[in-house]
Design a protein that fits this description.
two-stranded antiparallel ribbon, alpha+beta, 54% helix
Length: 56
């Protein structure tokens, strides 16, 4: 995994589902998923990685 993706992943972990849903809208992906006790945008990690790679 590229270091940029690792930094993005840390940045995109949220304590609430609502915050992750808002970030999903910004990334133009749908859904959220749980990562431990936090939430991440997009329906799964693969979709998240694709969305982040398009965001520049």
């Amino acid at each position: 995994m590229a270091s940029g993706t690792a930094r993005a992943q840390d940045y995109d972990m949220f304590p609430s589902k609502a915050a992750a849903e808002q970030r999903a809208k910004e990334l133009k992906c749908s859904g959220v998923f749980a990562m431990g006790k936090d939430w991440m945008p997009c329906q799964n990690f693969e979709a998240y990685q694709k969305a982040v790679s398009k965001e520049k």
